Amino acid sequence: MQNKGLIKFFAILFALVSIYQLSFTFVANNIKSDAKAFAAGDSAKESKYLDSIGREKVFNLGFTDFTFNEVSDKQINKGLDLEGGINVILQISVKDILKGLSNNSKNPVFNKSLADATANTQGNVSYLDKFFDAFEANSKGTVKLASPDIFANRSLQGEGGVDYQMTDAQVEKVIKRKVDESVESAFGVLRKRIDKFGVTQPNIQKLGESGRILVELPGAKDVDRIKKLLQSTAQLEFWETYKIEEMGNFLMAANESLKKTEVAIVETKPVVKDSLSALLTDAKDTATAVKGNNPLFDKIIAQGGGPVLGLFSPKDTATINGYFKRQDIKNLLSADQRYAKFVWGKLTTIRDAKDKDIEAVELYALKGNRDNVAAMSGGVVTDASDSFDQLGKPSVSMQMNGQGAKLWEELTGRAYTQKSSIAIVLDNIVYSAPGVSSGPISGGRSEISGSFDVTETKDLANVLRAGKLPASADIVQSEVVGPSLGQEAIDNGTDSAILGLFIVSLWMMIYYGRAGWYANVALAVNLLFLFGILASLGAVLTLPGIAGIVLTMGTAVDANIIIYERAKEELRAGKTLGEAVKASYSWRGAMSSITDANVTHILTGAVLFIFGSGPIKGFATTLLIGIITSLFTSIFIARIFIDWNINKKNNLTFVTNFSKNFFTNFNFDFLGMKKWTYIFSTIIIIGSVTSLAVNGLDEGVDFVGGRTFQIRFEKPVDTETVKVGLAEVFDGSAEVKVFGSDNQLKVTTKYKVNEPGIKADEEVNKLLFDNLKQYYSADMTYNQFVNAYDGKKFGIVQASKVGPTVAEDIKTNAYWAVLGAMAIVFLYLMISYRKWQYSLGAIAAVAHDVIFVLGIYSLCYKFMPFGMEIDQHFIAAILTVIGYSINDTVIVFDRVREYLTGKTKGSFYEIVNQSINTTMSRTINTSLTMIAVLAIMFVFGGESIRGFIFAMLIGIVIGTYSSLFIATPILVDTISGEDKKLIEKQHQEIE
């Protein structure tokens, strides 16, 4: 081996750099363990401890030192599935941005195009592109985007804006830039909010040009609070309010009108006598007015007063909203009230007539106008802080700029004169509506008070300081993992990795003896390099990433096996050890096969990295790095030890007494079996396609959208009973399966997955808790059931949500990933082998393997004791199977090509059969090591990736079969008879 000294130098240097990079991970983990022990389960205390030492020097190397924050930045970060926490993808509403840019245009073509773009879901097509296509189809050239009532308005005119003479194509460029600016603004606002939230190592990033923003909060536990923080647009407004006396006649008239159209309510409800009932009825008629046939008043559960029209149950708000949107009800408003805006207050808790706590919301009527614009917006707020009001209750203090101070003084002066109130509205919810009792308020200071707790005021002040979002932000995909589940994943992954390493190392020693030891040293160095690179790149380690590392152990020794098998052949041919080693490391020896096999593997891994997301990208990252590092260590590190052995004149045979006779006289007629293998594979493919047509596949929420919950109970529960109960509350959309142990269920539902906003998420969580709390002890609370915390054993341990638009994108990406991988490999093999028959045989084998795996999943998903969903993990498994199948096929094809161009005598079929037989030792060894490590992952890797590992396990087995019995026979059958005769003639002439 030339330049041996240089290779040693770089290997040692690389090892030292890897150790240096990994040292930060060890230091950070030790400090975090100390923090966890200090906090004793109190996550807030743990976070505060880590924040307090952020700038302290914690790692001294002698020549330099590092603070805890610097150490944390350099460590290998654990993904959500290992650390626990919350991961969400927010979709900034491009529809809202377009409305804002058009000044809320009333143009019918514009608004129809917005609606059409919303309704038309296509994978990987942005909302903006769908809007432009819809506008072109709806306008048919009669209306331009540059119309004054659309984008050529006053706010968009000027340099870099929209001129009414522009073409639609020119306007599109301007609008795309403006939308990008708005998304960038939203990104900045969200970053400010998250930086103040107090989570260690938050991650926020834009996802291409999709208008989506990924937010990862490792270790975060308060689910509802975080979702509110992220989705709040912080649209702060100050509205004047109507008093209950001013709206009394309208409410009375509305109630009377509704009696004519609404079904009478038979149930009698006890209603607290309030100012509204006193205003609208005489005392003797109160009972009659509020019982039995009052569609509006019967829903009042507690008194109002001042600006509050009444308190209602949260479940009735949608019905009340529907009443007030009806045109016949709107017509009952007086002329000066025609722009009244009915808005709900913040959810609160009151006591009913039975002295029982119930939830309620207040109803307000705001003084609107033709443009539906508040008297004053929150854009004038320059600062906000959490504080306490005069009664000692949590509140938020705000400071306004000069313009705001002036408007605030006018607004409070008017409220003081009219004895009315000012509603402080955030994101269309009234947080408080104080009156003004001491005259106009000057100076621009104000306060929001209400039924807050300290955490809420901190979050509210945070979002106000960070500023408002330019448009609404909806959570289109989310995942919540409890810390206990993350620790289980780490334990399972570590156990499977150690056991996999032990099995592979033991087999290499048993089969190859001393050379196996050298391969094991190379494997250990490979793992050091792999983790060192992950640390230096700041990569995130996920559970599929650990699976990728374990898989790397199986593939890492593949190059050594190819080299060792070639060296054994050269030794049998009579060459000396040095000559055999030199020949095996040559291009005509093992290097061409190793190169072709690994290039195809890298290509499929790259496709997986490009089209994958989250944990799947982590799997692709470790797989790609592992392929590269294993090539280096297998070829160079192991070679250093082999050359040292040669120089010491030690005998190195690459066999042991156990394996010395394995496959030495192996002579199986593979081509003679092709008739039967064709029949077998045809039956399998027909059966798979039939099953796919009849049974379909168990498509996970990644592909169809929906919500999934992994829920643990204190004891086993009846799955069917739970399913029936949940189907009732989720409108029939409830799938319930045992997931792993018999006290753990996986619940899937599509209930309100299309509905944006935090309210739908909260409603689903509460319905789930209300329906399942009967299976828990009496002290289980909603927060304990929903939120994550250290030591959590029962309740929701993992939850995820995928919106339909994201699901469509994921499905489209999956199709392109599989087809793209096959196309790229086909082109590479055609270029490498210069004959299309090789590419056809390889792709036919890959297609066979993919259909086979899909068929197995279609046939078995209904009764297998583990999840067999078709999701992103499954696509990762399919691409890995493609990579392995091609890898295995290339090894066989390289040997076939070598024998067909070599000096082996015999007929065409005999030559091909001999070439296949010489690859059997490598094929069986590599397949066995891969199957062994995958089987270990399947047993010990944890329930969440069991289906993913099973797909790879089946794929490896069928991939080995197809390389021998499908790819090669197709190659042989597609080579023309003339070429076969020519090859036979050339080999007969060889002396």
Which terms would index this structure?
transmembrane helix; alpha+beta; 5-stranded antiparallel sheet; 991 residues; 5 domains; protein-transporting ATPase activity
Structure description:
α1 packs across α3, α17 runs antiparallel to α18 and α24 packs across α30. The protein is of the alpha+beta class. The chain folds into five domains: 72 residues, no CATH class; 102 residues, no CATH class; 202 residues, Gyrase A, domain 2 (2-Layer Sandwich); 383 residues, Up-down Bundle (Multidrug efflux transporter AcrB transmembrane fold); 97 residues, Alpha-Beta Plaits (2-Layer Sandwich). The radius of gyration is 35 Å and the shape is elongated. The longest helix is centred in the first third of the chain and has 36 residues. The strands form six sheets. It has an eight-stranded antiparallel β-sheet with strand order 5-6-4-19-24-21-23-22. The two termini are 33 Å apart.
The strand count comes to 24
CATH architecture label name of the largest domain? Up-down Bundle
* Continuous helix count: 35
Q: Report, as a whole number of angstroms, the end-to-end distance.
A: 33 Å
Please, how many domains?
Answer: 5
- Rg: 35 Å
Query: Overall mean pLDDT score?
Result: 82
Helix proportion: 55-70%
Strand order of the largest sheet: 5-6-4-19-24-21-23-22
Strand content: 5-15%
* CATH fold node name of the largest domain: Multidrug efflux transporter AcrB transmembrane fold
Structural class: alpha+beta
Shape: elongated
Task: Pick out the low-confidence regions.
Answer: 264-275, 279-291
| Largest sheet data | 8 strands, antiparallel
CATH C-level of the largest domain: Mainly Alpha
Tell me the CATH superfamily of the largest domain.
Multidrug efflux transporter AcrB transmembrane domain
